[in-house]
Amino acid sequence: MRHLTADELVTLGERFDVDVDADRAADLTGTVNAMLDDLDALDDLAPVADAPSPTGADPGARTWSDPVDDPHGAVAADCSVPPSASGHLDGVAVGIKDVVAVAGVPMRCGSATMRGVVPATDATVVDRLRAAGAAITAKTACDEFAGSARGTTGHGAPITNPHDDERTAGGSSGGSAAAVASGRVDAALGTDTGGSVRIPASFCGVVGYKPTYGLVPLTGVVENTYTQDHVGTFTEGLDDAAALVAAMAGADESDPASLAAAGRSGYRVGGYRDAVADPPAPADLRIGVLAEGTGEGVADRVEERTDTAVDALADAGADVHTVSVPSFHDGRPIKNALSFVELATHWRDGAAPYRRGGVDETLQTGFARARAAASGELSDFYTSKLLAGAQVVDAHDGRPYVRAQAARERLRGAFEDALDGVDALLLPTMPDVAPRIDSVGDWSYDYARNTRAANVTRLPAVTVPNGRVAGLPVGLQLMGPAFGDARLLSVAAAVESTIRDGPS
Fold first, then answer.
1. What crossing angle do the helices spanning 331-348 and 399-419 adopt, rounded to 10°?
2. Which of 21, 350, 384, 485 has CA atoms 20 to 30 A from the CA of 304?
3. Is-catalytic flag, 254?
């Protein structure tokens, strides 16, 4: 590595808040440069892997192209990445959100700053899907670095809703939702930090599932907010959601969060497909309707759809009663404190990320270069989040972050108490139907009002279609206990089949 001068050490110390004056820097230069010399051995110990060619004569080779016939702006790149083995996903075409690495296929993360970045390795979830027989046929469009729920902050045109192209598909995984809803792919992956799977799934009228934190590995996923990031699924039905998680779930040695989850009490993997194939009868369901999920901030027409679903469940024999989590709305400041600080420090460090193992060097380098060159190219929304986090770190010594971690545990405990004695908590997924694209900047619409709590608490959650109002889909969300994913999916299947034939 290049040696540093004493003046460069002073400058570097200023950047990283290490107090080094000129005299001290002169004394330290020799030691620092000797330490850097030790790192040169890494070039031989871990050479950079060659990325698979995006072209080639081999019929099994990975190929990609700019999207064609993409009226909703749902696709970042068309691609052909064949399965690596045969399994229960044979014949399934899957779209992958463009913050999840697919080797040999450009990865833009919805940002102009990531031009030219091509991962050399697949994310763990991509590897596992291919091993189960799935083919990867698209990288799906998203908000810039998965940092917005609006579907409008990504590089290129807004992602439009297949049910009304003047309305947003939502974000940040809007491309995945629109691709499934329009039939462009059979299923898709997204990431969910505050609702970014369930929000667009609700808007687009498909099933969106966010597993328990740590159940599905994050290795190969560009970080947004590490302690709240989840890989989730978009499908037409719950059987397909179960099939995807069956392929992806399980500990990954390259993801510390995954390993930590595997060591927790109650950790369970498997049984998803069987659970959905044999759901409980409605009369065996115990559903807690979350009182704080409605009221101020939720449109009357959405509350009416939710009430209709609740009535259908009760009429079918389900035990349905109201439960309360008075601290429910505390999730907003908790989530924002965690998100802003983790985002700002992640960006400052040029990390893609340092906090996980198994990081593709080409991805790390690309992200770091993007960060260095991005000052004027990031969206206003993403820049604002970065600056808010920087202020918390710089002016408040990160104390709000510590408080948010403590508050997170209290909120999680409150939800665990509410789940005691019921199979799932029920609430509307979104406060209203998909907004018009020309109004998505209206801050009165709190996209994550009802979804962020599952990220803060790290509990599993799923949204299923719940009819329509004014021709636009409405979603119904169910939350379950940690690692009770199989049971939650089976309950969701029972709920979905019970409400499916209700009035529109």
1. 130
2. 485
3. no
Residue 122 near residue 103, CB atoms below 8 Å: yes
Q: Is residue 54 in some structural domain? A: no
- Are 346 and 481 within one domain? yes
Per-run averaged pLDDT (10 residues), the chain, 504 residues: 86 76 88 78 62 45 93 97 97 97 94 87 96 98 93 91 97 98 98 98 98 96 91 98 98 92 95 98 98 96 97 97 97 92 82 66 78 71 83 82 94 98 98 95 87 98 97 98 98 96 50
CATH number at residue 299: 3.90.1300.10
Residue type present at position 283: A
- Give the separation between CA 453 and CA 185, rounded to whole angstroms: 29
The parent domain of residue 237 ranges over 63-499
* Given 80, 97, 139, 258, the catalytic residue: 97
Which residue in the list 148, 182, 196, 339 is annotated as catalytic? 196
Point out the catalytic residue in the list 80, 148, 172, 202: 172
Same domain, 31 and 73: no
Give pTM, 2 decimals.
0.91
- Give catalytic status of residue 172 as yes or no: yes
Structural domains of the chain, count: 2
385 is catalytic: no
